[in-house]
Design brief:
Elements: E1 13-15, E2 20-22, H1 24-30, H2 42-53, H3 73-76, H4 78-93, H5 100-118, H6 130-152, H7 161-178, H8 187-194
Antiparallel strand pairs: 1-2
Helix pairs in contact: 4-6, 4-8, 5-6, 5-7, 7-8
Length: about 210
């Protein structure tokens, strides 16, 4: 028998994504790339542990990297930050195909939109891909609802576009540092889910690991 992926090496590791054994090399190179790995795969967990010990740095040309976030913005808007994170996690809970790439694309596009609002120019460009576009729309609707509620409460200070922008930039950078850059990675999504362990809306999917 040979590995069903490379058809060269001997299969040595059981892959829950394929339901059969594959070789160690293909496990390492195709993990979260062509393989849709479940979060409870032992080999994936081991790989993520290694990544945690060897944090990657962001490239100099990373979008929005040159934006200076005010030091107090996250602390003064902790509830809104948590609400934004929860809205993303909730969306991904009902969209199991969502990946970190989808989430980051939506957050970046929305941040870019608010960047134009700050300058007084309204220029909106949602992501082209369907899933990030849906998340973009969901987050836009969520923020609009928050602003509507604040407007109805005269005593409540209105949320400024600049404040929303910086929170989105912070969330975007957090996601970039949490993900590993692989196309099918869900490390950032899993991190967000982990912040709300008691929320029934974020119930994890059933394990796809099949005992060989």
């Amino acid at each position: 028998m040979s590995c069903p992926i490379c058809e060269k090496r001997k299969p040595a590791r059981f892959c829950p994504a394929k339901g059969e054994k594959i070789c160690a090399v293909c496990c390492g190179t195709e993990r979260e790339v062509t393989l849709d790995c479940p979060s409870d795969c032992a080999h994936l967990i081991s790989a993520h542990r290694y990544e945690d010990e060897h944090r990657r740095s962001l490239p100099a040309d990373t979008p929005l990297l040159d934006e200076k976030i005010p030091q107090d913005i996250v602390y003064t808007h902790q509830q809104l930050m948590a609400a934004l994170a929860f809205s993303i996690a909730k969306f991904c809970a009902v969209q199991p195909a969502a990946t970190d790439t989808d989430v980051l694309a939506a957050i970046q596009a929305l941040a870019e939109t608010y960047k134009t609002l700050i300058s007084g120019i309204i220029y909106e460009k949602p992501p082209d891909a369907p899933l990030p576009r849906e998340l973009y729309a969901a987050m836009t609707a969520f923020i609009s609802e928050i602003q509507k509620q604040q407007a109805e409460r005269a005593a409540s200070a209105s949320l400024k576009d600049s404040q929303i922008f910086y929170l989105l930039v912070f969330l975007y950078r957090m996601g970039l540092l949490r993900t590993n850059g692989r196309p099918r990675s869900r490390r950032f999504i899993e991190f967000l889910r982990g912040q709300f362990p008691q929320a029934p809306e974020l119930k994890r999917e059933e394990s796809r690991i099949i005992v060989p």
